[in-house]
Amino acid sequence: MVQKAKILLVDDRPENLLALEAILSALDQTLVRASSGEEALKALLTDDFAVILLDVQMPGMDGFETAAHIKRRERTRDIPIIFLTAINHGPHHTFRGYAAGAVDYISKPFDPWVLRAKVSVFVELYMKNCQLREQAALLRLQLEGGGKGAVGPGKESAGLLAELSARLAAVEEQAEALSKQLDDESADAAAVATAAHLERKLTGLRRALDALEPGTGSGASPLPAPN
Q1: pLDDT at 166 over 80
Q2: I need a labelling partner for 180 at 20 to 30 A (CA). Which of 81, 150, 188, 198 fits?
C-alpha cells in the first residue's frame, strides 16, 4: 500500500483552510492544517511534507518569517513552499517571497485548477524521491547482511538484484514520464530542477546496481544517498 504524501496548509483564517482542503481533496493525499507560523513549525518537527502552502499575512509570525525558519532547518530546507497572498504590492513584494525561499507566489483569488496542478507536481516528485530512498535502503540492508558489504553470486542474491532492478526500472519509467510533463516553458523552474535532481539520483543508484551484477568485477560500490 502506497503511503500518502502530506501537504501542509498554513493560514490563520479557518475559512481559507477549508477552501484549500476542498480544492486539494481530489489529490487524495493527507492534508495537515496549521493556523499560524508557530503551529506550522511545530508540525514540521515530526512529519515530512511534500509541499507547504503558506499564507503571507498572518498575525504574529507572518509567512516570510515562517519561511525563513523553515529554510534554516536542515530537515525542512528542501520542502517546496508556495506562498498565497491576498495582496499585491508589486514586484518588490513578489521578490521578497522568492527571496524567502518560495518556489511559487500566487495571489488570491487564484484558479483552483492551477493551484491543484502545481501542488500535484510537487507531490509526484516527493513520491518518486520516497520510492528511490526505499530502493536504496533495501539494497543497503542486503549489502550489510552479506558479510563485509558484498553481495555474493548466489541465487538468492541474484534474485534480489533482479527484483531491485525491476523496481528501479519502474521508478525510472515514472520519473521519465514526469520529466516529459515538465518539459515545457510553462513548467516551474523549481519543479524542473527537482526532477533533474531525482534523475541524477536514479542514475547513481542504477550504476550501483549494475556494479553488483555477477561478472562485473566491481564488487559492492558505494550507494548514492537520496535526499
Answers
A1: no
A2: 81
